What does this fold into?
Amino acid sequence: MWSSPQKVDSESVLSVSKVGMPWSCCRSRRQSWNYGRIAIEFFHKKKLPMAEMTSADGLIGGDDKSNGRYFFAKLGQVYVIYLANGGTTKIDLSGAPNTYFTVRWYNPRTGGEFIEDNNILGEPPTDNTEDLVTIIRAQE
It folds into this structure.
Protein backbone atom coordinates (compact mmCIF):
# COMPACT_ATOMS: atom_id res chain seq x y z
CA MET A 1 0.00 0.00 0.00
CA TRP A 2 2.55 2.63 1.08
CA SER A 3 5.93 2.81 -0.51
CA SER A 4 9.07 2.91 1.55
CA PRO A 5 10.43 6.34 2.53
CA GLN A 6 12.68 7.99 0.00
CA LYS A 7 15.58 10.35 0.42
CA VAL A 8 14.49 13.97 -0.05
CA ASP A 9 16.82 15.90 -2.32
CA SER A 10 16.65 19.06 -4.42
CA GLU A 11 13.90 17.53 -6.57
CA SER A 12 11.75 17.05 -3.42
CA VAL A 13 9.23 14.43 -4.45
CA LEU A 14 6.74 12.92 -2.03
CA SER A 15 5.96 9.33 -2.86
CA VAL A 16 2.62 7.79 -2.00
CA SER A 17 2.07 4.36 -3.45
CA LYS A 18 3.73 4.44 -6.87
CA VAL A 19 2.75 8.01 -7.69
CA GLY A 20 5.19 10.82 -6.95
CA MET A 21 3.91 14.26 -5.99
CA PRO A 22 6.17 17.32 -6.30
CA TRP A 23 6.14 19.85 -3.46
CA SER A 24 5.04 22.48 -5.96
CA CYS A 25 1.58 20.88 -6.11
CA CYS A 26 0.96 22.14 -2.57
CA ARG A 27 1.16 25.73 -3.77
CA SER A 28 -1.48 25.02 -6.41
CA ARG A 29 -3.80 23.77 -3.67
CA ARG A 30 -3.37 26.85 -1.47
CA GLN A 31 -6.89 28.13 -2.22
CA SER A 32 -8.40 24.75 -1.31
CA TRP A 33 -6.58 24.84 2.04
CA ASN A 34 -7.83 28.40 2.55
CA TYR A 35 -11.44 27.35 1.87
CA GLY A 36 -11.01 24.50 4.38
CA ARG A 37 -9.78 26.96 7.01
CA ILE A 38 -12.75 29.26 6.34
CA ALA A 39 -15.18 26.33 6.71
CA ILE A 40 -13.69 25.23 10.04
CA GLU A 41 -13.74 28.81 11.36
CA PHE A 42 -17.35 29.16 10.20
CA PHE A 43 -18.63 26.23 12.26
CA HIS A 44 -16.47 27.11 15.27
CA LYS A 45 -16.97 30.88 15.45
CA LYS A 46 -20.65 30.89 14.54
CA LYS A 47 -21.30 28.47 17.42
CA LEU A 48 -23.22 25.91 15.42
CA PRO A 49 -24.17 22.70 17.27
CA MET A 50 -22.50 20.52 14.63
CA ALA A 51 -22.72 17.29 16.62
CA GLU A 52 -26.50 17.74 16.90
CA MET A 53 -27.08 18.67 13.24
CA THR A 54 -27.87 16.35 10.35
CA SER A 55 -28.18 16.57 6.60
CA ALA A 56 -31.68 17.64 5.59
CA ASP A 57 -31.15 18.31 1.88
CA GLY A 58 -34.70 17.15 1.08
CA LEU A 59 -36.13 20.20 2.87
CA ILE A 60 -34.70 22.49 0.18
CA GLY A 61 -35.07 20.22 -2.83
CA GLY A 62 -31.47 19.12 -2.51
CA ASP A 63 -31.94 15.35 -2.76
CA ASP A 64 -30.45 15.57 -6.23
CA LYS A 65 -26.81 16.41 -5.43
CA SER A 66 -26.26 17.81 -8.92
CA ASN A 67 -28.27 20.94 -8.07
CA GLY A 68 -25.64 22.26 -5.62
CA ARG A 69 -28.04 22.74 -2.69
CA TYR A 70 -27.06 21.46 0.74
CA PHE A 71 -28.99 21.79 4.00
CA PHE A 72 -27.59 21.02 7.45
CA ALA A 73 -30.06 21.32 10.32
CA LYS A 74 -30.98 20.91 13.93
CA LEU A 75 -34.68 20.91 13.16
CA GLY A 76 -36.66 23.69 14.79
CA GLN A 77 -33.52 25.48 16.00
CA VAL A 78 -30.81 26.18 13.43
CA TYR A 79 -30.46 25.63 9.71
CA VAL A 80 -27.41 26.10 7.47
CA ILE A 81 -27.99 26.29 3.73
CA TYR A 82 -25.17 26.16 1.20
CA LEU A 83 -25.99 27.11 -2.38
CA ALA A 84 -22.97 26.17 -4.49
CA ASN A 85 -24.17 28.19 -7.45
CA GLY A 86 -25.86 31.04 -5.61
CA GLY A 87 -29.47 31.70 -6.51
CA THR A 88 -32.47 31.04 -4.33
CA THR A 89 -34.29 28.06 -2.89
CA LYS A 90 -37.49 27.29 -1.01
CA ILE A 91 -37.20 26.02 2.56
CA ASP A 92 -39.62 23.71 4.34
CA LEU A 93 -39.82 24.99 7.93
CA SER A 94 -43.12 23.27 8.68
CA GLY A 95 -41.36 21.34 11.45
CA ALA A 96 -41.01 24.59 13.40
CA PRO A 97 -44.51 26.14 13.53
CA ASN A 98 -45.04 29.49 15.30
CA THR A 99 -41.29 30.12 15.45
CA TYR A 100 -39.57 33.40 14.63
CA PHE A 101 -36.22 33.17 12.87
CA THR A 102 -33.25 35.38 12.19
CA VAL A 103 -31.52 35.08 8.83
CA ARG A 104 -27.86 35.83 8.24
CA TRP A 105 -25.78 35.46 5.12
CA TYR A 106 -22.14 34.40 4.95
CA ASN A 107 -19.59 34.55 2.15
CA PRO A 108 -17.75 31.18 2.12
CA ARG A 109 -15.09 32.45 -0.28
CA THR A 110 -13.77 35.21 2.00
CA GLY A 111 -14.94 34.19 5.47
CA GLY A 112 -15.19 36.79 8.20
CA GLU A 113 -18.34 38.22 9.67
CA PHE A 114 -21.94 37.75 8.64
CA ILE A 115 -23.46 39.89 5.95
CA GLU A 116 -26.36 41.16 8.04
CA ASP A 117 -29.88 40.68 6.73
CA ASN A 118 -32.82 39.63 8.84
CA ASN A 119 -35.35 39.37 6.04
CA ILE A 120 -36.27 35.75 5.39
CA LEU A 121 -38.07 36.82 2.21
CA GLY A 122 -36.09 38.20 -0.68
CA GLU A 123 -32.74 37.99 -2.35
CA PRO A 124 -29.36 37.72 -0.61
CA PRO A 125 -27.73 41.07 0.22
CA THR A 126 -24.81 40.34 -2.13
CA ASP A 127 -24.25 38.98 -5.62
CA ASN A 128 -26.14 35.70 -5.66
CA THR A 129 -24.43 34.17 -8.68
CA GLU A 130 -21.60 32.81 -6.50
CA ASP A 131 -21.75 30.28 -3.68
CA LEU A 132 -23.38 31.53 -0.50
CA VAL A 133 -24.21 30.25 2.99
CA THR A 134 -27.33 31.18 4.91
CA ILE A 135 -27.87 30.57 8.61
CA ILE A 136 -31.43 30.57 9.89
CA ARG A 137 -31.81 30.43 13.68
CA ALA A 138 -34.88 30.24 15.86
CA GLN A 139 -35.11 33.27 18.12
CA GLU A 140 -35.00 32.53 21.82
The chain has two helices and eight strands. Strands lie at 13-16, 19-22, 54-55, 69-74, 78-83, 101-106, 115-116, 132-138. The CA atoms of residues 16 and 101 lie 49 Å apart. Residues 1-6, 8-18 have pLDDT under 50 and may be disordered.
